[in-house]
Amino acid sequence: MLTAVTILVDGLVYSSWLFIVAVGLTLIFGVMKILNVAHGGFYSMGAYTAAWAIGLYFNAGWPPAGSYLLIAAAAGIAGTLLGLALERGLLRYVYHRDPIIIVLITYAVFLILENLVLQIWGVDAYLAYQPDTALGTTRIAGLRFSNYELLLIPLAAAIGGGLWWGLNRTRTGKILRAVIHDREMSLACGIDVSRLYTVTFVIGAVLGALGGAVTAPMISVTPGIGVEVIVIAFAVVVVSGLGSIPGTIVGALIVGLSRAAAVHLWPEVELFVIYAVMSAVLIVRPQGLFGRAPLRRI
Amino acid sequence: MDGTLRALAVAVIALAIGSLWTPDWIVFLATIIIAKGLVVLGLMVLWRTGLVSFGQALYYGIGAYAVGMAQLAFGLRDAFLLVAFGTVLAAAIAVLLGFLLARYRDIFFAMLSLAFSMILYGTLVKSATLCSTDCFAVLPPRFAGMAAGGTLAKNGLFWLTLAAATIAVYGVHRYLASPLGALTTAIRDNEIRVEYLGYSVERAIHIKYVIAAALAGAGGAIVALAVGHIDPDSTYWTTSGEFVFVTILSGAGSALAPFVGSAIFEALRAYATAYAPYSWQMILGVFLLLLILFLPQGVWSLFQRRVRRAAP
After folding, report:
1. Which pLDDT value is given to residue A206?
2. Are B106 and A272 an interchain contact pair (Cβ–Cβ within 8 Å)?
3. Interchain pair A115, B114: CB under 8 A
């Protein structure tokens, strides 16, 4: 019973984290059909910006409450700058290329960002634990959980809800759905698809950076954190069916809960349970749980 | 004999003899270059159909671990047998996984192959019997029963690698010229039309996948013997990414292209890690971008253009 509760809470926290990290990838794929490997770069940029800013903030001796705003601001600034530079400066010139070539282009960008992080912040680890410890812990079923980590659950819900609201209840969202559905027809209707692509990519980049920024207080921010995250985010996105936001919620829950179960029941498989789930889903449903099978074109 | 085979013969003879007078470290580097070129040659066969495997490190790793395990379990020391074992094991696993992967294209092919390689990585890191994240020492190989000493110790593995590469290049060259090989580009252009011609696309891709895996297994086995050390990082996705990088760098113009690409890559790596260790990946990334944007057919297309201009 105790284990079940632990797995559930752990799994929910981990799923929420996965959702925050992967949803930007989903959004970009859904709208632009680009599998963005550079997402891992956004993540580490966000994490470093946040960790560095938090360090400065607490050295100045200001109250901890403001550091949460700082995390969001760091993600917003890093994501917007990177997203704008990448989409306006590079990606829009290569949209006509093969999808797999675009994957390689974003892979190149990822490699560049990995070292850019090193150039800016050096090789030393950054610790920014203060926002985490300032919130204390909660006892659930006799075990202590960090409140900061538990807060990821409402944060993920808020991001998911916000995206849902934006896509379904706003004018831009409805236009965006039209573009997702049929890009050429939307162009013909006079929608400025190019501008929407920029907006989507920037939002996706901010979400990626936010993933890194909220993670920063929970880990020691070191070079190479993006490398691991990108494959995990891929797993979630592929499981959920590329480009589906409700799918990402389900995908994150499946992956998160199975990893939590593995950690507590069968620790040896912890490292690859995510990829085992990903392979299993791809084998049974190649298009992912919520994806639509592609049409065959003659 | 066409141009590729002539070039192959000249290069192999020159390298085999030349290696007698070159210093150890160059022979070692050349062994690594050619072994990794084998892996890239396999990826090139897939790339010609428009398939990119982001998990080729799976077979590279299988080849390497096959060498280590065969030494431990059966006391196998002969270099030729070890490399053959790694190749066959990788091919056998690819035959099985190929039934699944041959159904996938584009991003899904890339992602599923990535997932398989990450499963192997996770298993290796966690398994105590394969000594987890630290080493796995590989004993120096023997050649036809002889304990290697003198010239054989220095050049034996290089000659073996050269022989393996010769067979591989000749085989792939002939394969690409065969009807089955000619389907490669046709499948990339339009799958359904190929099926209307009466060929099974799935089977053609399955065969390519096995070829690629066998070559990666051979490459992994040779690198394991040359370096004398195996670790799970050789199966991580960044290793696969490097192989994909070299494939794009080489281009798919010829069966010799992967070796040129591999040489450029290793030379670049040797200099970059020595002089700019913290911007090595950045150099790679910029290089990859420039290649995709300005030289989409890879460095081999430079040779081809020269040849075409020279011919009247």
Report:
1. 95
2. no
3. no
Query: What ipTM score was computed for the predicted complex, to two decimals?
Result: 0.81
Find out whether A87 and A106 touch, Cβ atoms under 8 Å.
no
Residues on B contacting A at a C-beta cutoff of 8 Å? 50, 52, 100, 103-104, 106-108, 110-112, 114-116, 118-119, 121-123, 125-127, 190, 192-193, 237-238, 241, 244, 248, 278-282, 284-286, 288-289, 292-293, 296
Residues in chain B, total: 312
Q: How many Å apart are CA B88 and CA B124, to the nearest integer?
A: 20
Q: Could you tell me the two tokens for A49?
A: 């910006």
Chain A nearest-CA distance from B192, in A, is 6
pLDDT digits (tens, 9 = 90+) for A34-49: 888 899 999 999 999 9
DSSP state at residue A127? E
Under an 8 A CB cutoff, do A275 and B123 touch? no
The tally of CA atoms less than 13 A away on the side-chain side of residue A252 is: 27
Q: What are the extents of the domains in chain A?
A: 2-284
Taking CB atoms and an 8 Å limit, are B293 and A94 in contact across chains? yes
Residue B172 has pLDDT above 70, yes or no: yes
Q: Indicate the pTM of the whole model.
A: 0.86
Instruction: With beta carbons less than 8 A apart as the criterion, state whether B50 and B108 touch.
Output: no
Q: Are A225 and A209 in contact (CB under 8 A)?
A: no
Which residues, in sequence order, are CB contacts of B161 under 8 Å at separation 6+? B31, B34, B35, B222, B226
Tokens of B30: 């050349």
Nearest Cα to Cα of residue B165 among B119, B215, B205: B215
Burial class (CB in 10 A: 0-12, 13-18, 19+), B237: buried
Q: What Cα–Cα distance (Å) separates residue B257 from each residue in B284, B289, B297?
A: 19, 19, 11
Check if the beta carbon of residue A49 is closer than 8 Å to that of residue A77: yes
- Predicted confidence (pLDDT) per residue in B223-254, tens digit: 998 888 888 888 888 889 889 989 988 887 78
pLDDT digits (tens, 9 = 90+) for B86-116: 999 999 999 999 988 888 877 788 888 888 8
* Model confidence at B136: pLDDT above 80: no
Phi-psi region of B198 (alpha: psi -120 to 50; beta: other; left: phi over 0): left
Does A108 sit within 8 Å of B285, measured CB to CB? yes
B280/A109 CB distance under 8 A: no
Q: Which of B118, B122, B278 sits opposite A118 (nearest CB)?
A: B278
pLDDT for B312: 43
Pick the CATH number of A2-284 from 1.20.120, 1.10.3470, 1.10.3210, 1.10.357: 1.10.3470
Classified as helix, coil or strand, B142 is strand
Q: How far apart are CA B88 and CA B82, in angstroms?
A: 10
Give the pLDDT band of residue B1 (cuts 50, 70, 90).
Answer: low
Rounded Cα distance between B233 and B1, Å, is 41
Q: What digits encode the pLDDT tens for the residues B52-67?
A: 888 899 999 999 989 8
d(CA A94, CA B175): 33
Residue of A nearest to B50 (CA): A100
How many Cα neighbours within 13 Å face the side chain of B173? 19
Nearest CA in chain A to B102: A283
